[in-house]
């Protein structure tokens, strides 16, 4: 008897069904995670340009990304800061983060969750 048959015999039919269910859930998550909510968006400048012009990055986010990406509460940048701060609602943090990091260099952004008043 080979190793796979021994494994299946030990876990039985219920264990096999659970194992198969977990494997299918894993496959579904692999193919559905990572949806880019800005898939039709291309930044007008590259990361090297934005590294030198953070004010332009803040303006680009405010003018062209915020209207297309639900969940961004604010985009802030002040002269002398090394990153643009994007505040995102807690319920949309990970999808928005994923989409932003696909289009802009992570070292130029500080991504923060919105602090709720009751927590």
Features:
alpha+beta; 119 residues; three-stranded mixed β-sheet
Shape summary: elongated
What's the helical proportion of residues? 40-55%
Strand sequence of the main sheet, in spatial order? 1-2-3
Task: Give unreliable regions as ranges.
Answer: none
- Please summarize the sheet with the most strands: 3 strands, mixed
Order of SSEs: HHHEEHE
First-last Cα distance:
57 Å
Number of alpha- plus pi-helical segments = 4
Going by helix content, strand content and strand pairing, the class is alpha+beta
Radius of gyration using CA atoms only: 22 Å
How much of the residues is beta strand, in percent? 5-15%
Roughly what is the average pLDDT, rounded to an integer? 89
Number of strands: 3
């Amino acid at each position: 008897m080979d190793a796979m048959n021994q494994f299946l015999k030990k876990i039985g039919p219920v264990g096999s069904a659970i194992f198969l269910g977990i494997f299918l859930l894993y496959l579904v998550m692999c193919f559905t995670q990572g949806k880019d909510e800005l898939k039709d968006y291309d930044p007008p400048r590259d990361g090297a340009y934005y590294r030198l012009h953070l004010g332009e990055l803040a303006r680009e986010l405010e003018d062209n990304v915020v209207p297309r990406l639900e969940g961004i509460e604010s985009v802030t940048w002040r002269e002398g800061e090394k990153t643009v701060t994007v505040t995102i609602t807690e319920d949309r943090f990970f999808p928005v983060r994923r989409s932003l990091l696909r289009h802009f260099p992570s070292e130029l952004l500080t991504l923060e969750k919105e602090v709720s008043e009751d927590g």
